Amino acid sequence: MDRIEDRKLIVFLPAHNEELNIGQVISRIPRKVREGWQVEVLVIDDGSTDRTAQVALSAGADHIIQFEKNRGLGAAVREGLAACVRLGADIGLMIDADNEYPPEEIPDVVAPIWNGQADYTMGSRFKGVIRGMTIHRRIGNVCFTMLQCVLLRRVIWDGQSGMRGFSREAMLHAEIIHDYNYAQVITLNLVRQGFRMKEVPIRYQVRVHGQSFIKFRKYVGSVLPAIWKEMRRPVVKRQQLLQQQKQILLQRRANAEE
Ligand SMILES: Nc1nc2c(ncn2[C@@H]2O[C@H](COP(=O)(O)OP(=O)(O)O)[C@@H](O)[C@H]2O)c(=O)[nH]1
Ligand SMILES: [Mg+2]
């Protein structure tokens, strides 16, 4: 008799015009990762004008969400996290659809969450192996990562990774405050809430087909104000939230006993 797989890992891919890449990424995603765990694949197609959705389905995607118009990577990841929760994922793993990140290493990136050591993981290129990244991209990555280190007062190696894992709790509480991007603001948000973050070394190979959506001015002009806005926002610490919930439960019990 088949064993019932009652825990679910959803691998989700935000995608915009990736018909030449997404099929390869999906076919490389391991479907057997751990005893008792099933893997499903979800694509958030952000208004692609090519055959991204058809290619994803033929490659074996289990769920596709299609935005009618292009809304931005931040909006797509926000929707991906919400959809993972709706679809009953215990863990969500985001990976770019451009074949730059290694699907074979998904179990490694998820492992700290499985082992109870982290709520949020990042596949770190700078702790691992990088092939083909231009020098100005390297400098840009280092600068944006250093900014996050300063703001969070902790060491981070790769703050712009396109491969990240989330516990269900982290997916429920993560907030992405702009539609254009998610990379820095989600880390600032989760770590400030008290979620435990861990980086795992991964192998990275720059894309072979298509182009990065990043344009320097637009990126800096959108991301810096969003970081500023996120840092000025008060967040409820997870510890405080748990305390508050405990207080409410105790109060309810006391009321019931009266
Ligand atoms: N949702 C959404 N995803 C996008 C958009 N532009 C790019 N992406 C996806 O975001 C991921 C990373 O994009 P990419 O352009 O390679 O950025 P880079 O890796 O930071 O240079 C890929 O999966 C793209 O398909 C967009 O406008 N909306
Ligand atoms: Mg890319």
From TrEMBL:
Signal peptide region: none
Taxonomy, superkingdom: Bacteria
Family annotation (Gene3D superfamilies): Spore Coat Polysaccharide Biosynthesis Protein SpsA, Chain A
SUPFAM superfamilies: Nucleotide-diphospho-sugar transferases
InterPro entries in alphabetical order: Glyco_trans_2-like (IPR001173), Glycosyltransferase_2 (IPR050256), Nucleotide-diphossugar_trans (IPR029044)
Protein name as catalogued: Uncharacterized protein
Species per Swiss-Prot/TrEMBL record: Paenibacillus baekrokdamisoli
